[in-house]
Structures are given as structure tokens and as C-alpha cells.
Amino acid sequence: MAAVGNGNVGRLLSMQKEAQEGARGRGTNNMRDLWLGCTVTDLILAYFRSVKANMMQTVIGNTLFTTSAHCLRLDKKATLKAIGHTVVAGKVQIHLLYDNINQYHQAWRANLTTQSALESGMAAMVIVNPDVDPKAFDGPGYYQRKAEATGKGELTFEKLKLDLDASQLESAAIANILRILTKYIPELARFKQDVDNFQYKKHSKHRIKLEKTEYHLLECSGFNEAYTQGNRDVILDAFVCQLGVSRKELEGRQFPVSSNQSTIAHIHTLLAQTSTCRTWFTSHKWVLPVIELWHMKWTFLKGIYKAHWASKVGKGDIGLRFAADRLGCKINPDKVDFYPGFRLAEVVLITMTLHFSSVHVPNVPTPNPSPFPQLSPSDPDLDHGLSIMSADDDNNNHNTDRLSNGAGAPLPSPASVLPQRRTDLNNASEDVQPAPSADNPEGDTLLYNNILLYRDLLHLYEFNTSVHDGDIGQTYEIIKWLCFYFFGVGSPNYGNELLHQGSSTSAILSKSTSTFG
Q1: What's the whole-model pTM score?
Q2: Looking at residue 64, what is its pLDDT?
């Protein structure tokens, strides 16, 4: 015991006791199950008597599985009913999320009676949001503010453009650039705390408190979301049948319902078709359709590949096509898979950021053999860049260089109109061409396209980090910008939907909704 150490004696004894208990064998619920042991023994002895007795194992296994599944189903039903009671009492707010499940059944010997078929079903879940103000989703107030906002006038391009907060987008871009630099440059790692304060405290729009999400899966159904009737059946099955909420208990309340754009369009059609109904329940005013952020981010990613995937790679073009060829990534630009496409876009953004920083940061003379000088983080001014000071400067005249977000190639304003990628200088219009220089009167097309790519990737990175960090204010600022972007990259369906919920959300929803996470 002395060789092991007195501090580890108790741990070894507890491990020995657990090993002895594990060797004895334990049944269901960490208890010895006499019935299970006798059943297994009888099956083994019966197998020795006859090989055909092996079928009894399958029969008994299916029976036990069915019994266990039935018990779990009853427990799940009780849990969902309890959630429905807490929703009716106003203690929690729920958010319904559902999407389709497709299963293809192929007929190996197709004939008139047996053919291949595609079955569609629905998988749904409810997200529980505690500590939500009951006035956050006030149904009558919502429709009253919506009518007032409609009477103020039509939504024009100038109103949408003025609604953009360009300074907030610029601050978020600077913060994310600094985050990349401090993460991948060891000499700048000591500035991480300053960058976090700059992003999460000084320039945070509306950051909610992060907490573990409580969600509950619902029973799968066979409704088809490709039709308006199918979406109505899914919503009614979730709230009325599974959660047990009655029609009167839905009166005057609203619940967010999320899915992809096509499903949300069908829900809008349902609301329009039933708007003349007399009751709150039959008019479906208690349904508040919202597009899932994941689907929105996926469409954003598809638009980036559609706008910036070069058909041919030229000299100096370090865009998406070049990176995919060098890294051996099999990317189909016409049908982009989310996770491989997002990883490649993130790699290109990080590479371009580090490349620009290494090119435009001048070499400060210092005895340190490292390519970067010794850094002293003495309260840097992050609004104008990251201050890099040489440690051997004893005077007040410090040799200071700044890493700004526009090193050598300033990014265009986030509130500007989105130009298209330039592929033909002769056919390109004058409003999308960069300013000509003395050496090249037509401008640097490659630099211009790289700047557009860097801006779009940076906004994608901002959108992803804002959702991850819980800054819903910054997320909505990116959504306002996406109203323009989706129309420019050929996704008018998402653009039209964002016009409904993006710019006018702050005018329609109540102020208490800001506390909703």
C-alpha cells in the first residue's frame, strides 16, 4: 500500500468492489433478474435439443421488445400531456419544429400490383422555453400591430436599406476577423480576452443567456408536408392530439412553428385561406410561421457557391474552386451538401484572413527571431485595429502597427447594393466595376472578385457565430442583409419570406418578445 500511495488506496478498493459486482452479473435496472436468467438457460438447453428451437429466441425477443416499447410509449404520452398542461397554465412557451421523412421502397420485381413507391412522413419535436413573458406572444396585439404597420405604407427598397445597421455589421466583421487572428496566430493569443470583451460586451446587439435546450420528440406521422392540408394536419396532431391542448385553451395565444421555406409557404397559404373564419382556432391565428435558421444558412451557403464558384481557375484565384481542387474535396456547386460545403467555406475564409494579415502587416525591426514582434497587450483600441507594440521600445514613441479589417483592400460597405461576380469586362456595366488605376484602366477583376468572396464568407461566418453565441440581435441584422442577398443569388422564395419576418419583425412583435430566446 505504501508503494501505491495512501491517497489512491480508497480508489483502488472502490474499483475492486465494482469489478466484483460486475463479475456477478446484473440484470435490468441494475438488479438480478431471475426470470431473465431462467429464460436464457431454457433457450440454450432447447437449442442443444433441436436446432429449430432457435426460433424461440426471436419470438421471445420480439415479445420483450414490444412490451418495452409499449411501456416507453405510454411514458412518452404522459410526458407530452404534462407539457401540454404547463403550456395551458402559461408557465412555459413551446416552439414546434418539424420536417419531412422520405423512405423509398423499391420493388425488385415490379409488376402491375407491386411497384416502387416513395412514402413521406413527418418527424416533429417541441422545444420548451421557460421564463418567457406571457405577453411576448400576444395574438390579438400582434394582428393589431400588423394592421397598423400595413397602413403606414408599402415596404420599399429605401426603407429596407435605411433599416440596415451598417456600423453593427462592420463591428461584428472586425470582431470575427480578430477572433480568427487570435485563434490561429500564437503571438496574438494573449489578446483573446480583449477580443471577447470587444465582441460580447461592447458590440453585442442582444445576447441572450445560454442554457441547455429542453426538447421532446413527438410521434412520427404519415402526413405529407407537400400540401397545405398535410401541414395543417401535422400542426393539429402535435398540439391537439399529442400535447392535449384544447381549442379554447389556444384562444388569443401564438406559438412559433418552424420548418423549411416551402413548408412555411404552405402555412402562409393556410393562414390566408382560413383568415375569414370566425374563431381563433379555425382561422389558425395561433400559428406563427418562422423559417428555420439552419435552412436559411444552408440557402446562404448555396448562394455563395452559386455566385463564386469559378468555371475555370486562373492564376492568383484562391477561391472556392481552387481550394476544393487542392484539398481534394468533392463539391457539387449545383447541389451543395451543407457540412462539406460549410467546412470548405470556413477554411477559405480563415486562409484568406491569415494571408491578408501576413501580407499587409509590416515587419517591425526587433531582435526577436519570430516574424512577429513581442506583444504587450496594454488595453488595445480594438475599434481601430489590434495594436502591436515592440517590446524593446522604452520611449513613449512606440512603434505601433494596426491590423484593421481593410488592410490594402477595403471591404465594401455592408449596406451597399450587392454587385455580381465579374466574368467579362466588356459586358460588365459601369456600376459594378472597381475604380480604374493608372496601370490598369479596367481595374483588377481578380482582386474585386476576391473582395466580394471575402465579404460574403465573412457574413456567413458572422451569421454562424451569432447563432452559436446566442446574439439574436446580430442574427437579425444579418437576416436584414440577406433580404437583398437572396434576391441577388436567385433565391427569391427565401427573399420574399424574409420580407415578411425580417425587417418588419421589430414593428409587429411586442417588446416583451425580446426576452424570448
Answers
A1: 0.69
A2: 67
